[in-house]
Amino acid sequence: MSALTTNRRVPLLDLKAQFEPMREEVMAAITRVVESQGFIMGPDVKALEAEIGAYTGTPHAIGCASGSDALFLALLAAGVGPGDEVLTTPYTFFATAGAIVRAGARPVFADIHPETFNLDPERIPALLEAHPAIKAIIPVHLFGACADMDPVMAHARARGLTVIEDAAQAIGAEYKGRRAGTLGDIACFSFFPSKNLGGLGDGGILTTGDAALAEKLSALRVHGSKKKYYHTWVGVNSRLDSLQAAVLRLKLPRLDGWTEARQRNAADYRERLRKLGAPVALPAVPDHTSRHIYNQFVIRGERRDQLRDYLKEQGIGTEVYYPLPMHLQECFQELGYKEGDFPVSEQLARTSLALPIYPELSHEDIDYVCGKIAAFYRA
């Protein structure tokens, strides 16, 4: 399908729009940290940990170098290693499955629910029976909505399994009134710049209600050391920089306002696309989701790749999350999965498309995007 290009531009994400109103505060925070020369594990890191703990409703928060490292550290703290298996979904960012392999364990995949994009709890019992070596479950709170955690926790508790929330995209999301970060044994968050609470580079944090796990996680991020040069465990070097923490502390008080803007944008998309009659499936909000934070707004439609190309010609940024499920990745072929094993994940990989949803998006921007989607399907 051909189209004339346009001068209008609606990027997938506009970080400059967020930065400009905060420019002076951000630069002052950076200058303060530089002048202090306290770059590693400084007071801003400790303060951010306390503030994230309060925001999520957890007594313990432990900063680390990235969301990917948070997953790895959580698995180490849970004692997951060679010979163990970990249950998760194939429709996720690579870090979820990658952390399992890095820990020496084997991923066991369960398909997702077609409406929520998250782990389908009904698939868990059979997999636990077939895989007695499963030691942990990692439900992914994808795109800003929590997985259905009550049945996940019930299955895990019945077998003594650790539950690690992959909440990289879900800070502030709520499940039946409870925040992501409080629903499992450990939760992992990312501060990658594209996240709702994003830093100026990589960063992550873990939350837990278990004091012993918190102590272990705090040590594991500094080579397994509770006291300098004395190592209780073999850990890694994964510390959150003070520069990142200082900037994140400035952004955290603004997060709820940004979330509300994302929610308004999502509602605007729903109303506009329905009025236009665009033949796309809109993201569902299940009953158990009491707060969706819309890290992404993902539609589903036929001829997805052609639609994406058309929108690009019209100056509209989009992204495919995710074009190839984990079980079909080349590096995981030794797991023995094949095409057709997880049909829901595979279908979504073929049909899903993320639209711009960032807080600074205008109503006119959304109207333009929806109009172009409708025009594509009318042609």
Structural notes for this entry:
The chain is an alpha/beta fold and 379 residues long. Helix 5 (94-102) links the parallel strand 2 and strand 3. It contains 13 helices and 14 strands. The mean pLDDT is 96. The protein has a seven-stranded mixed beta sheet with strand order 1-9-8-5-4-2-3, sandwiched between helices. Strands 7-6-12 form a three-stranded antiparallel beta sheet, with no helix packed on it. The chain is globular and about 65 Å long. It starts with 14 loop residues before the first helix and ends with a helix. Helix 2 runs antiparallel to helix 9, helix 4 runs parallel beside helix 5 and helix 4 packs across helix 8 (211-220). The longest helix has 22 residues, at 255-276. The protein has helices at 15-19, 23-36, 43-56, 67-77, 94-102, 124-130, 149-159, 211-220, 242-251, 255-276, 304-313, 343-351, 363-378, and strands at residues 60-64, 85-88, 106-109, 134-137, 162-166, 174-175, 178-179, 186-190, 204-208, 225-227, 230-231, 289-291, 297-300, 352-355. 47% of the residues are buried.
